[in-house]
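ok so I'm stuck.
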Amino acid sequence: MTIKLASLSADLKKEREGDWIEVKDWNGLNPDKPFEVVSLPGLAFLVRSNNYPPFVTARQAALEKLKQDYPSGNAPPDITARLDGELILEHLLLGWKGLDIEYAADAAQVIMVAEEHRNLRSMVQWCAGRVGKKQVEFVEAAAKN
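replied:
not stuck anymore, here's the structure
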């Protein structure tokens, strides 16, 4: 089979303007069954891609500063949570649905930087990694006569 080259390209408009990405399910949310995959119907995030140029630039600058502040590479979890949350808020997260709290910028600012909301940050980052990707398509081989 031959792959259509165009199906491997990124949708740059979605990467830069954002797209709704459903989480559907997530593992590790049940402490009694840590390997169980938990269904999360209706949960979706409106996010830009983690390839969004301003995010890439800001993340690189933040990581460089983190290396200066913590040369051993052992930044405290609350510091990394705040850093990741701020980058997500400034560049990636545009909305959510399916949570008991409606999306509002002021609520998101508190939630996304809180160390205890690492699962939510991970979900947003996972969604950002999916924005702009297309389904791979194949060219059907011509039928032989």
